[in-house]
Amino acid sequence: MHLNSKIWMVLMIFAAMHLPAFAQDKVVYHFDNADMQATKGLRNIRNHLDVAPSTKVVVVAHADGVDFLLDGAKDIRNPNVDYASLVSALKARGVKFEICEITLQSRNMKKEQFNLDADFTPSGVVRIGQLQSREGYAYIKP
């Protein structure tokens, strides 16, 4: 094998081994209590994207964490905080919001009650696990 070929092969192996270092950051934010987490969590996401704008962010909400995604939802401590505008601004920056359908069933809620910027997932906890184990997302719970 020619020397240049050997050097090229070593460089390719080295690059492949270090490829994850160059991968896009991916984070799942887990909300299960809107009253305690929503305002703080949405601001954390905004700050996160201000510093690292290429980060791929998915918000998964279940249990009482879905409440901030209801149409017309506001912060109970500060009614001037309208969640829909915060969610829309983050959605415009590429953030995905996913609501647990098991929560909807157990709380007798309908998809039509929720912000149009949100999507649905069959199980919030399963989705969080999949994002972490299969897709390499870091986990943050505000």
Molecular structure report:
The protein is of the alpha/beta class and 142 residues long. The chain has helices spanning 3-17, 34-51, 83-92, 101-106, 124-133; strands spanning 26-33, 56-64, 96-100, 118-121, 138-140. The chain has a 5-stranded parallel sheet, with helices on both faces. α4 links the parallel β3 and β4 (118-121). α2 runs parallel beside α3 (83-92).
Quick overview:
By secondary structure, the chain is an alpha/beta fold.
- The helix-and-strand class reads alpha/beta
Low-confidence spans: none
Mean residue pLDDT: 90
- Residues in helices, as a percent range: 40-55%
Spatial strand sequence of the major β-sheet: 4-3-2-1-5
Number of strands: 5
Q: Topology as H/E string?
A: HEHEHEHEHE
- Give the end-to-end Cα distance, rounded to a whole number of Å: 55 Å
Largest sheet data: 5 strands, parallel
Global morphology: globular
Question: How many H/I helical runs?
Answer: 5
How much of the residues is beta strand, in percent? 15-25%
Q: Compute the gyration radius: what is it?
A: 19 Å
Keywords, separated by commas or semicolons:
alpha/beta; 5 helices; 142 residues; five-stranded parallel beta sheet
Blueprint of the fold:
Layout: H1 3-17, E1 26-33, H2 34-51, E2 56-64, H3 83-92, E3 96-100, H4 101-106, E4 118-121, H5 124-133, E5 138-140
Parallel strand pairs: 1-2, 1-5, 2-3, 3-4
Helix pairs in contact: 2-3
